[in-house]
Amino acid sequence: MQVAFGVLGPVTAWRDGAELALRGPRHRAVLARLIIARGRIVPVNSLVDDLWTVPPDGATSSVRTFVAALRRALEPDRPPRTPPALLITEGPGYALKATDVDAWRFEQSLEESATRPPQDALAMLEAAVAQWRGPAYAEFADAVWAHAERSRLAELRLTAIERQAEARLALGLAADAVPALDAHVAEHPWREDAWRLLALALYRSGRQGDALAVLRKARTLLVEQLGVDPGPALQRLETDILNQADHLDPHAAGQVWAQATAAYDRAVSSTARARLESTVGLLRNLAVTGGSGLEAAREHRLAAITAAEELGDPNLTARVIGLYDVPAIWTRSDDQRQADEIVAAAERALSATTQEAARARLLATVAVESRGRNSTRGLAAAREAVEISRRLEDPALLAFALNGLFMQTFYRAGLAPERDQIGSELITLAGRHDLTTYEVLGHLIRLQALSALGDFAAADAQAQAADELAERFELPLVAVFTTWYLAMRAADETAYRRAATLLDTAGMPGLADGLLPLALQSLGSGGSAATPRPGLLLEAQWCLVARQAIEQDDLPTMRDALAALTPAAGQLAAGSGLVNFGPIDGYLAELSRRLSN
Q: Which letter does DSSP use for residue 226 in this model?
C-alpha cells in the first residue's frame, strides 16, 4: 500500500492512486500541519493553538479524535491494537512518517534540474510544475502556521517557471518561451529576471522592437511604482540589444561551430600532428567551463601529451604541453599523479628544446603543476619563465608565467603582499591585452591576498569585478570562489554549507577535499587540523595546529607553529579568500605566552 500526499493545491491524500476521504477541514488542517513538520513531532498543544484562535473546552480531545479519523483513512486495513505506521504518536505529540509528498518531489526535481543538460532539465521542470493543482495548501491561505511554507513553495514555483524559460532558450526554443513568460510577468511584475528572460526570448525570436518595449515597460513599473531603477542585468541587456551583441544569440555561434568543425574534419587528416595542437586548444577552452568540462579536459590532456611524445618530436611535445595555459587559482592539484606525469614530460621536453618561448611555457607548466610541493624546482622554474617572458615581451606568455610564480609563493607564511603584486600585474597586463581569463585570475588572487591583509573593502571590489567578468564572458567556475568568499565574510555556517554545494559539480576535487570541515572549524563548528603544506591554506592550517597544540600543551608543536607563523605577523589567516581564522598576531601572542611560562 502506497500513500501519497498532495499540498500543491488543496490538501489531499491518495492510496494506490485513489483519493482518500479525509473528513472535515480540521482533519485536513492536522494533516497539513504534520506534513509541514517533515516528519518531526508536533506537540498536541501546538496543534490546538494552530487549529483555534480561542481553543474550546475539550480541544485536546478533539485533536485526538481528528488524528484517530486520519489514521483510519490512511491505514484502513491496519489490524486492531497494532501501532500505526504513518501517523504515529511520539512523546507529547504526533508525527507523519510520509515519504511521498508532491511538494517534496517538486523541490527535488527543481534541485536536480540545475545539474542536468537543458533537454533533461526542461522535461524535469515541466513535470515538476505540472504537479501544481492550485496555490500550495490552498484552503489554509489565512492560517498563520502555513504562511511561511506557502510563501516558500510559491517562490520555488516561480523559480521553476523561470528555469523552464532558461532551458527553452538554451535549446533554441525562444518563441516557445514567450507565451509563458508573458503571462508570468503580468502576474508577477516585480521579478526582474522574468522581464530579462522575456526580453531575451523576444530578441532571439527576431522581435527586437518588442524586446526593447518590454524592457522599457519593466523600467517604468520599477521606477514609478517602486521608486527603484532596473538592476544591472536588465540595464546590460538593454545595452546589448541596442548593440546587437553577438553573445545574445549563442545558437548562431553554435551553427558556426558545427560548420567549422565539419570543415576541419574534412580538410585535416586524423593522423595529422595539427590535430594534437588543435585538441589541446579545445581542451583549454573546455577546462574553463568547469564541471564535466574541466574533468574531461583533465582526463584527455595527458593522453594528448603521451601521443605527442610517441611521435618523437620534442618541439611538438613542447607545444602540446605549453598550449594548455589554463589559469589556475587553487594550490592543490585535482589529480596529483597526473600532475607529476605532466611535470616529468615537461622536464623531458625542456632537455630537448632550445626555443625560448617554448621553454618559458614548459617552465610555467612545471611551476603550475608542482603546486603544493615542498620543492625548490617549481619556484626556480617560475622565476625563469617570468624572466624569459619579460625579455620576449609576450603578454600571454608572461600571464602564464606569472600564474606559475603565484603558485610558488607558498613556501612560507606571510607572502600575501607578494601575491597581491602578482595579482595587480595580471589585472593590468590582461586588461591591456584582452586576456580575460587571466584578468579574472588577477582579481581572484587579489581577493585572496587582500583577505590575508585584512582589507576586505578592497577584496569585496575584487570579488565584484571577477563576478562581472565571469557573467559577461560565461566563466562559471568564478562563482565557486566568490560565493565561498561571501560565506567567509558572513562567517555563517549556513552560507558555508550552501557554498559547498557548488563544489559538487565544479570538477575540482583538489579544492573540495576537506574544505567544508576546515571552514566549519574556523567557526568553531567541528573538524580537525590538517598537516600544513604549501598552499593557500598554509596560514589557516598552521593556526589550527597552533590552536590544538595550545589545547594539548604540546610545546614542540607550539614552537613549530610560532616559527611558521611569525613571518605572517600583522596579517589574517584568510589568504585563501574562502576561510578566515582571524588575526595571526593573536595566535603568535598566545603561543609566545604559553612557551614563556
A: I
| Vertex 80: Cα angle to 75 and 83 (nearest 5) | 65
CATH 1.10.10.10 domain locations along the chain: 1-164
**Which H or E run includes 43?**
strand 42-43
> Is the separation of the CB atoms in 106 and 8 below 8 Å?
yes
Q: Name every residue whose Cβ is closer than 8 Å to that of residue 299 and which is 6 or more positions away in sequence.
A: none
Span 172-246: which CATH code?
Answer: 1.25.40.10
pLDDT at position 531: 64
Residue count of the chain, please give it.
597
Strands 12-15, 18-19: pairing is antiparallel
Express each pLDDT in 119-152 by its tens digit. 899 999 999 999 999 999 999 999 999 999 999 9
- Match domain 1-164 to its CATH number in 3.60.20.10, 3.40.190.10, 2.60.40.1930, 1.10.10.10: 1.10.10.10
Contact 95, 41 (CB under 8 A): yes
pLDDT tens string 26-55:
999 999 999 999 999 999 999 999 999 899
Residues of the chain with CATH 1.25.40.10: 172-246
The DSSP line for 367-413 is HHHTTT---HHHHHHHHHHHHHHHHHT-HHHHHHHHHHHHHT--SSS
State yes or no: pLDDT of 473 exceeds 90. no
Whole-prediction pTM value? 0.59
pLDDT digits (tens, 9 = 90+) for 249-281: 776 666 566 566 767 777 776 666 777 888 888
Which residue is it, cell 625548490? 376
